[in-house]
Structure formats: structure tokens, C-alpha cells
């Protein structure tokens, strides 16, 4: 099931996405969900065309835990070795935007990069999750773009500013709850030109590895997000560019880059 979060007439709700097509092409409708989707829920039967609503980030995470250098070719293209343990960092909630929202080019950077990623959405509070229980705590999957101020990342020891600035974490367009994430095509395009193309099967550490590793240290809450790393092909974004992240079985997350006002 595809579950979107949206606003209409000043109200925010969740809905199940029905129909065929894309956000841009039309043909999709939302069946409004009663309550929140992390527990047992009912569909209201009240349906609205997706074209009549504004899509919001599909979740509002308490925290986004991101993993760096989880694809060997991406580590190599930036001159890094594969780390012995997962490299984890945080992106703040203020970095999260939805599909169609603008990425604001930060004033402290001259080298902004796209990073297409599969995002894991957590469905229940969990800590110290054993490998065999990981599927029980995952709500679903969505597309993400770990937008990075590469020059700031290279000159600063911590990545907080480089990867945590406002609008640096586009998520969307919705969460797909019924999906095998082990071997999905993942790509990024800029102005329609393909920049990244990889498969989730190329991850160094699996989703199970990451959930076990992260929850050894911290409690994850419903709606929290794990970014699983990016394949090779990262590259620059400029003001005016439109960047799209497409993941097989989920859909396409699209954002335009604007000058921070």
C-alpha cells in the first residue's frame, strides 16, 4: 500500500494512494485514512484526486539517521575507503521537505550535490532489535535525497552543517508498505539527464544490519527514518535545476533548486 501525507483546505491527513500513474500525470486518488497509519487503521471511503492536494513529507520524523559510504563505488569516487563499521550521522527534522518542495541552495556552500537514497520508515518504537525482528519494526520505504554541501563536508570535521541545513532532506512522494527492498533500481536525474543508477543489492550493509546497528545505541520511534546510503554518480546541483530520485516499486521524488531568499 502507498500511504501519502497531504494537506487540503488547511487540513493535514494521511491517505492511501490508489490508481495508476504518477504525481504529474494524474490518475491517482487518495482514500483518506481515519487516524494515523502506524497502528491499525481504516480507510474512510472519502476520496480526493491527488492533483487537488499538496503532498507533504510522507512522515514527520523525530530523527533521521543517515548512513554514509554504504556503496563501495560511491566511497571510491570521493576517495574514501569502505569503513569498518557503518558511518552514521543525523539530519534534523528542519531539513525534511516533501516532493515538489524547493531545495534552498545554502549561502555557505558553492558545491551542492545530490545523493539518491532508499529511506526506511520505522513503524513502531523499538530498541536493540534482533535481526529476525527487523521486518516487524519497518513500516515501509520511500525515496530520499541526502542533499550535501560537499565543500563544507570536506572542510569541516563534522557533517552537521554540510548535510543538515534546511531543505537538505527531501522525502517522498509517499511510503510504500509492501515492498522487498533487497534489489531495487535507484536512480537520480538532473533536468532529465541520468546522473546515478544503482541497485540496493549493492549496499555494503543491509537494512537488517543497519537497523540492528542503530538500535543498539538508540530508540527509534514511529515515523523515524533511516537513510541507507547512495550509489555512485553523485554530482553538482545548481540554482534552477530539477532533481528527481526514482526507486523501483516506490515512485519519483522531485524537487527544484532555488536560491535561498
UniProtKB/TrEMBL annotation:
The keyword RNA-binding does not apply. InterPro entries: Fumarylacetoacetase-like_C, Fumarylacetoacetase_C_sf, Rv2993c-like_N. Residues 63-257 form the Fumarylacetoacetase-like C-terminal domain. GO terms for molecular function: acetylpyruvate hydrolase activity; isomerase activity; metal ion binding. Coiled coil: none annotated. Keywords: Isomerase, Metal-binding. Residues 1-58 form the Rv2993c-like N-terminal domain. The keyword Phosphoprotein does not apply. Gene3D superfamilies: FAH, Fumarylacetoacetase-like, C-terminal domain. Signal peptide: none annotated. GO terms for biological process: carboxylic acid metabolic process. Pfam families: FAA_hydrolase, Rv2993c-like_N. This is 2-hydroxyhepta-2,4-diene-1,7-dioate isomerase. It comes from Streptomyces viridochromogenes.
